[in-house]
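FORM 7B: Structural annotation worksheet

SECTION A. Query
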Amino acid sequence: MTSPAPRPETGAPASEPGAAAPVLPFDALPSPLDAVPELRAAARWMIGAFGAVGAALIGGGPLVAVGKVDGLGEAAVAGAALLVALLVALAGVSLAVWQVSRVLVPPVTTTATLSDPVVRGLRELVDASPADFFGAVADGVDDLLRHRAVAANVQRALAAETDPGRREVLRRHLGRARANVARTDPYVRWLLAMAHVWQIRAALHTARRWCLLAVLLVAVGAVGFLTVTGK
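SECTION B. Predicted structure
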C-alpha cells in the first residue's frame, strides 16, 4: 500500500506566467549592502588608531626612560616597571585590534542565519510589521521561508516515487511550489542582505564595547609608563 500523496501547498497563488514583476516595498530604498563599506571603513579606522597608539608606546616608551636611568639598580626597577606598563597598554591595543578586525571578516549568511540570536532584533522588527516588509506575500519570516521547505520536500517525494500517476501529481505540486519560491525570492534576498549587514553591525557594536575596555587598559598602562619615566 502506497503512502498518500502530500497535500498541495496552500499559500498565496503563484504569479501568472508573463505577469509583470511585483513592485517590492523596498524598491525605492538603497540596498542594505551599501552600508557594508562604511561599516568596514569605520573598523579600519579604529584598527589604525589603536595601531598608532601601540607603535607610539613601543617606540617612545623605552627611549624616554633610558635617559633618566642612573645605576644598575634603578635600571632594573625602571625596566621592570616600564615593561609591566607597556604590556598592560599593549594588551589593551591588541584586544581592540583583535575585536575590531572581526568586523572585516565577511560573515556567511544563509536562511539558517535568520535563527541566530545575533539577528533576533531584525526578526522581531520584521515580524512586528510583516506587511511593511513583505506586503501581502507573507505574514512573517517563517511564512516567507516555508515555500523553499515545501519545494524541497516535494522534490524529495518526487525522486522517491515510482507510481506514474502519483509522480504526475507531485510534478504539479512541485511546479506550484517553485512558482511560489520564485515569487518570494526577491523578499528572501532582501532579508538575507539585511541579515548580512545586521551581523556586521552587531560585530562592530561588540567591538566598540571591547574598545572601551581596551581604552581603560591603555590608560592604566600609560599612567604607569608616565610614572616610571617621570621618576
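SECTION C. Observations
The chain has a mean pLDDT of 75. Residues 164-230 form the longest helix (67 residues).

SECTION D. Sign-off
Analyst initials: ____
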